[in-house]
Design a protein that fits this description.
This protein has 247 residues and is mainly alpha-helical. Helices cover 69% and strands 3% of the residues.
Length: 247
């Protein structure tokens, strides 16, 4: 995806603002405008409508979103704390990029948080929730057999979101949400990995089976195996894209 930065390189500020406007959804009424601006920018970054390294100029963003620069500045500050935006001395705010070490650290945090969460889910989920997970696994298997990878990715993501929605600790849930924003974005950046989604269907099926057993240790072990499998595939993919050699 080329991103806004690569489009119409000679356009002025007005042209850039007009191009940016296509990135965001129509303005909605919100009690706090900063929240809406934050949500719009965050979604655009995660979905790669704003690509890694792309400059985030307050004036152009404010014009494209139809707001003043103040909520844009506040939203960028929040996104920087989440690690989705970084400030540079020569470009100002830009969409953050991932080095190998970034991915390693994100996956270390993911493993800590999600294995804690699934341990809790293994002893708290009821039959209705198990039925929902089983339905998603069946849907994933159907889509895999049909070769509909776009819909398959959505079903796998829905499985994860449903599972971690069972977390009742609000602070841990917030940390999981932040990490999953990065995981989703990295997934978009490495979407070309052959067979990754198809393998994830089997791995999620094993996760559901372990949860049915009400054995927290088994559920943790299966989820950890899935997390490390995805991490290793993505490390290889990002390494190949950047020309880094793996030892």
């Amino acid at each position: 995806m080329a991103g806004i930065a690569a489009a119409e390189p000679h356009a002025g500020a007005a042209g850039r603002a007009e191009a940016l406007a296509s990135v965001f959804s129509p303005r909605r009424d919100r009690a706090k405008m900063t929240d809406w601006v934050f949500d719009e920018l965050r979604a655009a970054i995660i979905d790669l409508r704003l690509v890694p390294g792309e400059p985030l100029r307050e004036a152009a963003l404010a014009e494209s979103l139809g707001v003043s620069k103040t909520p844009v500045r506040e939203a960028l500050g929040r996104l920087e704390k989440e690690g989705l935006v970084q400030s540079t001395s020569f470009k100002g705010a830009v969409v953050s990029e991932y080095a190998r070490q970034d991915l390693v650290e994100i996956y270390e945090l993911r493993e800590m948080l999600e294995t804690w969460a699934i341990r809790e889910a293994a002893i708290s989920m009821d039959e209705e929730k198990f039925a929902r997970l089983d339905h998603l696994i069946a849907e994933g298997e159907r889509l895999r057999s049909e070769g509909d990878l776009e819909a398959l990715a959505e079903v796998i993501d829905e499985f994860d979101r449903f599972l971690f929605a069972q977390v009742t600790n609000a602070r841990i849930a917030a940390l999981i949400e932040n990490v999953r924003a990065h995981i989703t974005r990295i997934g978009h950046l490495t979407a070309e990995i052959p067979g990754r989604l198809q393998t994830s269907v089997d791995e999620h099926g094993a996760i559901a089976l372990a949860l049915h057993s009400a054995d927290p240790a088994a559920a943790v072990a299966v989820l950890r195996g899935h997390i490390l499998s995805v991490r290793d595939d993505q490390l290889r993919s990002l390494g190949a894209r950047s020309g880094d050699a793996e030892g």
